[in-house]
Design goal:
Blueprint (H helix, E strand, L loop, with lengths): L2 H10 L8 H8 L1 H16 L7 H18 L7 H17 L9 H8 L14 H20 L19 H16 L1 H6 L8 H28 L6 H4 L5 H19 L3 H21 L2 H7 L5 H4 L1 H24 L10 H30 L16 H25 L1 H4 L4 H10 L3 H8 L1 H18 L7 H24 L7
Helix pairs in contact: 3-4, 3-5, 3-18, 4-7, 4-23, 7-8, 7-18, 7-21, 7-22, 7-23, 8-16, 8-18, 10-12, 12-13, 12-16, 13-16, 16-18, 17-18, 21-23, 22-23
């Protein structure tokens, strides 16, 4: 890559100040709006009951293309796109139901005794799958779209202080990993739970492939003279190193918190607060932002020190996962009991959204708070609280939509019925992205690198850029759905 062009590419993503949190919320609201329309089509018309080319294409348009449009062509008017999705969805929900009744095999499954087909220890949570799948899709889209002018600069990662779509995306990736990390903790019993050294060995085993990917990315970027934003993580550090080092450190904290979600959340907040105190009352903040890069520590200071913030985000996600992924009752519930349990789940999500949100407002408020600024580069306390608030609110929306559109899921009395209702409530595209998220993210990174090496992204017209982005989105989605179709799960 010519030095001048490389410099242009680096300048294109440098020294940016971001946009407003309100606009970010409007853009990301496309995901729950699309899910509402999908749910309306499924429950009122039975449109996605059988897989076909038409249903797969509609799935792709709703959950992938709409997110791409929200971050590009509709970036100046995201509310318009939100309304275009919400209006037909609400209209369909108001209209009388014309969906075909459940087939006879499903009715037979419903009559199976609960003792012969018990509910699994951990319930299926389609709203979590939908949330994680949507987050993965917009992440994969943004890592390439950011290199085109059709993607607004205010959505790209901020240099020092401010908020942007890609900033909250990075944190959301870590937060979602924290949420699903609660599953093995909930599955383990006191008698079967492994010791600390066994847990640490398992964590290191899981970390090694990610660290290897980090080294691979490092050598490929340096070897190809690929454009890189040094102030993002440092000279040698990258995101794979951050997520690779999380499991061992989280395992150490588990010895303190066990499986208490409140204690895990408290540790998350205290860790972020302690790190913020070091930033404010020592020279650490100045070192990270302005120090010359003369040795390994100073060259990679952003990645090394921001790790504390990402660890706090992971623990915040794990705390929420311990709350929402477990089953409140393994026995069949009456409709009223099932409804009450679902309301409790929604209340938990709303309360955590409110708690993190109040803490975020307090730490960032000028009049009655600490007047701190959000910094993804530092991964400071306001950034941690913002990411936690955003994701809890998103999960609340998805859970509310699922509760309203698929009430039979929470009333399931047998495992087969729950699996059937869960499949009915989960878009195939989002299920595919959620199932192999990290592998898909890796493929998306590889495609992004190939496109950037082969195409002058800075000189693309709007139509050319959209053509490339749509093709890229189709390729990544095809890969994800192909793995899901062939029942392949790639664990990294």
């Amino acid at each position: 890559m010519a030095q001048s062009y490389k410099s242009m590419k680096e300048d294109f993503v440098s020294n940016l100040s971001g946009g407003s949190i309100g606009e970010i919320n409007q853009v990301t609201a496309v995901a729950p709006a699309a899910y509402l329309l999908w749910s309306a089509l499924q429950t009122r018309r039975g449109f996605f009951a059988n897989e076909s080319l038409a249903t797969s294409l509609t799935d792709f348009l709703l959950h992938v293309v709409c997110l791409l449009l929200a971050t590009t062509l509709y970036s100046s008017a995201p509310l318009v796109l939100d309304l275009l999705l919400l209006a037909p969805g609400i209209a369909l929900l108001i209209l009388p139901q014309t969906r075909k009744k459940i087939s006879k095999p499903a009715q037979k499954d419903a009559k199976l005794p609960a003792a012969k087909d018990p509910l699994p220890t951990l319930p299926t949570r389609p709203f979590v799958t939908v949330w994680r799948g949507g987050m993965m899709i917009i992440t994969c889209l943004a890592i390439l779209a950011v290199d085109f002018k059709v993607f607004p600069r205010r959505f790209a990662k901020v240099e020092n202080w401010g908020t942007s779509l890609m900033d909250v995306g990075v944190g959301s990736f870590v937060f979602s990993a924290g949420v699903v990390s609660a599953r093995p903790m909930l599955r383990a019993t006191d008698n079967k739970a492994p010791g600390i050294f066994a847990k640490l060995a398992t964590a290191i085993k899981h970390a090694l492939p990610l660290l290897a990917l980090g080294l691979l990315r490092l050598y490929s970027v340096k070897g190809l003279d690929y454009a890189e934003h040094v102030t993002e993580y440092g000279v040698h550090w990258n995101f794979f190193f951050t997520i690779g080092l999380l499991p061992p450190f989280v395992t150490l904290f588990q010895t303190i918190s066990a499986t208490s979600p409140t204690i895990v959340a408290l540790i998350s907040f205290l860790l972020a607060s302690a790190y913020e105190s070091l930033l404010e009352f020592t020279d650490l903040k100045a070192f990270i932002l302005t120090a010359p890069r003369v040795d390994f520590l100073s060259q990679n200071r952003e990645g090394i020190f921001s790790f504390s913030g990402y660890l706090a985000i992971f623990l915040a996600g794990q705390s929420l996962g311990l709350h929402i992924l477990g089953r409140q009752s393994t026995k069949g519930s009456t409709p009223s009991e099932a409804f009450a349990q679902r309301i409790r789940l929604l209340v938990i999500l709303m309360m955590w959204s409110l708690l993190w949100g109040v803490l975020f407002i307090f730490t960032t408020s000028y009049g009655y708070g600490f007047n701190l600024k959000v910094s993804r580069r530092l991964a400071n306390l306001p950034y941690v609280l913002w990411v936690a608030t955003f994701n809890c609110a998103q999960l609340t929306l998805f859970c509310f939509i699922e509760t309203c559109c698929f009430p039979a899921l929470s009333r399931a009395e047998t495992g087969s019925v729950e699996r059937k209702e869960s499949a009915r409530a989960t878009p195939r595209v989002l299920r595919a992205f959620n199932r192999n998220g990290l592998a898909i993210f890796l493929v998306a990174n590889l495609l992004t690198g190939m496109i950037n090496l082969g195409v002058d992204t800075l000189r693309m017209t709007q139509y050319q850029a959209m053509g490339i982005l749509l093709t890229y989105a189709a390729l990544v989605t095809s890969f994800a759905m192909g793995l899901d179709h062939w029942d392949i799960s790639i664990k990294l």
